[in-house]
Amino acid sequence: MTFEQLKLAAPLLRAVEKAGYTEPSPIQAKAIPPVLEGHDLLGCAQTGTGKTAAFALPMLHRLAETPVRQKGAVRALILTPTRELALQIGESFSAYGKYMKLRHTVIFGGVGQQPQIAALKHGVDVLIACPGRLNDLISQGYVDLSQVEIFVLDEADRMLDMGFIHDVRKVIKQLPPKTARQTLLFSATMPKEIEQLAEDLLTEPVFVKVDPVSSTVDRIAQTLYYVEKGNKKQLLPYLIQKLAPPVTNALVFSRTKYGADKIAKDLTKRGIPAAAIHGNKSQTARVTALEDFKNGKTRVLVATDIAARGIDISELAYVFNYDLPEVPETYVHRIGRTARAGAEGCAVSFCSPEETEYLAGIEKLNRKKIPVISGHPWDGVPAPVKQPAEPRAEKALLKKDRGSKRSGKTTLAEERIEEHTMEEKQPQQVQQSEKLSASAKRRRRRRNKTAAAAQQPTAEKATQQPKQNKAKNPPKAQPRREKAAQAQPKFDPHFLSAAAADQVRGVAQPKAERPAPKPAQKNEKQPRNGQQRAEKPARNAQTHAKNQPKNPPRREKNAAQLKAERQEPKKTQPKMERNRQRANANREENPGLMLISRRPPQQKYASFEEYMEARGGVTAPVEDYADE
Asked: How far apart are CA 253 and CA 348, in angstroms?
């Protein structure tokens, strides 16, 4: 069968011939006739079999022959799960509609929306969109889908896996009823959820199936390598350089985004140009990496499942499954990137002991065993053991000693780490002193001297004591209480009474009873200020004794006693009279004159004459005016 037999329009046949296609693929030959007749279609075929042309060619044919309902309105809508697939579908429409006047545009997230809004305002016949950005523009009022004539849902199973099915249903609510539009649904696999979605969208559809559900293309040569997880990064560059036929370009699949970046970095270090694309990359970076890979600037493209879905690369030689997918259907999508449009390709998979369960699911789905290649350099070789990380405390010391490290000095953290590692190597004690730094050796010598000094006898320490530097080892300070005991009294009288003077000279005096204080006289002379200060301790004692409560506590008295005390008048005495009585009592007790110095002298004197003779002054008799 040829494209002329499909009864396509002349501009389409001309564009297909210029693209180099002469015969339609099986999916194209079965899908194009019912679409041209206006039937709904449910197409099931693995990726790489020409599904894009199967709906693009009849869609352009129908839009060119059908009159326009509303000028500038969107007449056809194509929903795709990924940005890369949307761009490739846009390229296919550019190639197939090259000689037609129909306009198309592609909208997706990750880039500015102003250029896309400008294109929509100029009028669009065919709109290729991702669900997220399309819903945003609909909510903003820039897109009207009420005039859509043909609706295409591509990679429906991938939409379901990526969680876009809710966004798809929002878009469907904006479309005309299913009886007023033509709906085409394509999927590589047919799970129960897709079958339910097809029943809701399609009206008496034509079911087109090329190969068994979820089967792989027979032209792909599949091989399997058993290898430990830690040795995969060694096996991948080895195979890229040694496989036959030569690996001119390769697409490597990783399960995680971090793994994709790490694989690309390892390959670049080994001299193999590589780039990574995944969801965390910006749209500009993803498009640039994909274009470099298509143009041959990048030899290896590392991608995750979401980013690589729908990538159409002509003459892709190899697909490497660095990590086996958890979902068996994903394996079908991965290896379908090669052997497209009748070409041949190879699919190489790595399987670690942790991934044997995933391998069993893949082989069960494909209904055949994948050939295993043994005898490679890492067959049965255990993965390298990671070196233990440095202790956190040592890392913290290294961080604190950065300033010392910049100045060229050996830091304390480095010495501790070095000594710690040397202590673990007990048999190599001879080499230990050679490896230590100069400052570490000095610190070790100081510790040895300290330990030797601690073991010496006490007598040797006593003999070595005078040799020590006084500045380094000052004598121990005496306790504060011992100092107070050795010091002289704070207040030392220069002049003492006769009895006290005899005690100072050493003459024993009989103890005399203290005379009772005389009753206070009203006109008695007040004592001098010096005598009042001298007798202050005695007065304080008397005052303390006088202030002691003579009556029992108030709570012990009964109510009658308290009432009597309240009615009895209080005997008050003026304050000055009390002071005079205390002064007279003190004078009668010690009639002699006493002088107290604030600064204690070095020697005590028995009399004023001795004091003056010691000072070299003239003495004079002391007159007593106490009787006046």
From this structure: 11
For 75, 333, 621, the CA distances from 310, given in Å and listed in that order, are 24, 8, 131
For 525-534, how does the pLDDT look when each residue is reduced to its tens digit (9 = 90+)?
555 554 555 4
pLDDT of residue 214: 46
- Look at residue 625 in the predicted model and tell me its pLDDT: 55
Q: Which of 162, 193, 86, 161 is nearest to 130 (CA)?
A: 86
Helix axis angle, 51-65 relative to 26-36, nearest 10°? 20
**Which stretches in the chain have pLDDT values below 50?**
213-214, 405, 407, 423-435, 458-473, 475, 483-485, 487-496, 504, 507-509, 520, 522-524, 530, 534, 552-554, 593-597
d(CA 518, CA 583): 11
Q: What residues contact 77, with CB distance under 8 A and at least 6 apart?
A: 127, 129, 145, 148, 150, 151, 152, 171, 175
Bond from prior residue into 510 cis (ω within 30 degrees of 0):
no
The predicted pLDDT at position 224 comes to: 95
First to last CA, the chain: 158
Q: Which contiguous run of DSSP H or E holds residue 372?
A: none
On whether the CB atoms of residues 233 and 356 are closer than 8 A, the answer is no
Largest CA distance in the chain: 159
Q: Residue 257 has which token pair?
A: 């985004």
DSSP one-letter code for 515: P
Residue 149: per-residue pLDDT: 94
- Rounded to an integer, what distance in angstroms lies between the CA atom of residue 236 and that of residue 349? 10
Look at residues 170, 113, 163 and name the one whose alpha carbon lies nearest to residue 142. 113
Complete DSSP assignment for 67-115: PPSSTT---EEEE-SSHHHHHHHHHHHHHHTTTS---EEEE-SSS-SHH
- pTM of the model as a whole: 0.50
Cβ contacts of residue 224 below 8 Å, gap of 6+? Answer: 349, 351, 359, 370, 371, 372, 373
427's CB contacts (< 8 A; 6+ apart) are none
Please state, in angstroms and rounded to a whole number, the distance separating the CA atoms of residues 439 and 350. 52
Q: Which of 326, 40, 376 is nearest to 206 (CA)?
A: 40
pLDDT at 470: 44
